[in-house]
Amino acid sequence: MAMTTNGLSSKLIPSFLRCLNSSSPSFTTPHFRFAQRTTINTTTTTIFAPPAQPEQSTINYSNDDRVYNFEDTKRLFSSVKTGKLIRSAANLSMASVEPVVDLGMWVMSSRLMQMGLLREVVLGGIKHTVYEHFVAGSDTGEAGRTVKKLWESGLRGMLDYGLEHAVDNESCDTNAQQFIKTVESTQSLPSSSVSFVVVKITAICPISLLKRVSDLLRWEYKHKNSSSFVLPWKLKTLPIFVECSPFYHTLTKPSPLTMAEELDLELAQQRLTTICNKAIESNVPVVIDAEDTSIQPGIDYFTYSAAIMYNKGQKPLISGTIQAYLKDAGQRLFQTKKAADKLELPIGFKLVRGAYMSSERKLANSLGVESPIHNSINETHRCFNACASFMVDEVSNGPGGLILATHNLESGKSLKLYVFHHLGCFPFFHICLNSFKKKEYTTPGNTTELLIMKTERGKLAARKAGDLGIGRESDKLEFASLYGMADAMSFGLRNSGFKVSKYLPFGPVDKIMPYLLRRAEENKGLLSSSYLDRHLMMKELKRRVKACVGQVPMVGRKRERPVV
């Protein structure tokens, strides 16, 4: 279903396009009212809001200047035991070395993993190092215990069962049951301790079928004026393409889906429907992950058709993902949001920069076509900031949701500042500030003072949020980061009274490590961007050693009699 901007407000299009071409948003203060957060089941409208918060461990919260006080490492890491701190610093240091990631990829894909004894040794070594640091556990039970530990320390969890692409219906059924089990597991955990459950369409629909569906959707869009090309299986959805979207994956007319393929597609949709129904029953929202452009149209089709079925009221149950490093990201976001508005549909987005840059460019180069990725990182930053600013404007005065997942500190700072200056508050806004760019913090002569200076604008925004009453009792704002990454910022925000989530991948070590290593290979800069965490952890360890040494009485020294 092709959609255009015809009929949209003439004021909206120019402002959004100006925002796309601007590196920073303007600041105004519109009037608005808080929107009630609701969702719907398959028949009736019901309130979709988390239950009252249970008590957590005693943590001193404040909204003062100490929100980003990285100098006070004692307070920052007050809930982290020394052993955990040592392991975290060691694992981050090891993971920040790119040759280690390359070696891990080689070992996991080599014939060495087919040798029984050696395989057990390798997996055992991985499990007790990087696996324990970056992964929440092997199953829902262990992941649940990790959630409880986070909850006790004042944090929440986003559960992500790490699965590779499914190849047949049998594996899809197994994966769907794992997602359902993950959703069900949230019912036995402390109320509100799980903020989201992450679902991958590639795990519940055969990858070959997703490619076929994507090809057919691309061809339909390119020939939308032709009545001879019809997709009888297609459900009602939202805009998936714009004119500048990449279409080079489908150069010739694809054959229609066979009866068997249509049946497989229906089965995949039934799996997603079952997961969504269970999410409603468990009162937990779902986020759909994005993939590369060869299959993303099919993923968007699943996401938007489910959103039309389930998203009602003010808060979306289903959120999709927009990758800002794609040149068509801004226009697609705009078209989809406005189409949803016409249907009075609350639409949710997770906005990320993207994780498949090398493979996308390699494919485009091999075909001799223009890359779908922005030409520079600055263009990606501008697109990300513009999309975020646009969505913040939209959800401030109406329904919908936004999850901002960024590895770039500058975007986090400018967007938070934009939000609080431009909006003051908003109904459902989640900021995921995962980590810091290594290049920004590893220049010669860097000190903690310089690192703190980099976060001043974020501190001002967080203080502003506290002044507005956005803290532990509010669902308007949530910070999140990858498990094992950006702990300093997570603890700093927690100490200031904000809700903070950690992204929790989990699964058996032999199944989840290829999944994690593949993403680490695509995002080597992410693991190497942990300089601030490592720096602060080492500083806190030195402080604890000095404090311990200071308490040990020196041998041979006579204790002086106190003066009376």
Unreliable runs? 1-17, 19-55, 63-67, 407-413, 419-471
The assembly state of the depicted protein chains is single chain
CATH topology of the domain at 28-51 and 163-508: TIM Barrel
Query: So how many helices?
Result: 21
Please outline the major beta sheet: 9 strands, parallel, barrel
Look at the structure and give the mean pLDDT.
76
Give the class from helix and strand content and strand pairing. Answer: alpha/beta
**Residue share in helices?**
40-55%
Q: Which of globular, elongated, flat, extended, rod-shaped describes the shape?
A: globular
Radius of gyration: 24 Å
Report strand order across the widest sheet. 3-4-5-6-7-8-9-10-11
Count of distinct strands: 11
Q: What is the CATH top level name of the domain at 28-51 and 163-508? A: Alpha Beta
CATH structural architecture of the domain at 28-51 and 163-508 = Alpha-Beta Barrel
> Between the first and last Cα atoms, what is the distance in angstroms?
89 Å
Cofactor: FAD
Catalytic activity: L-proline + a quinone = (S)-1-pyrroline-5-carboxylate + a quinol + H(+)
Protein name: Proline dehydrogenase
Domain Proline dehydrogenase: 145-415, 460-526
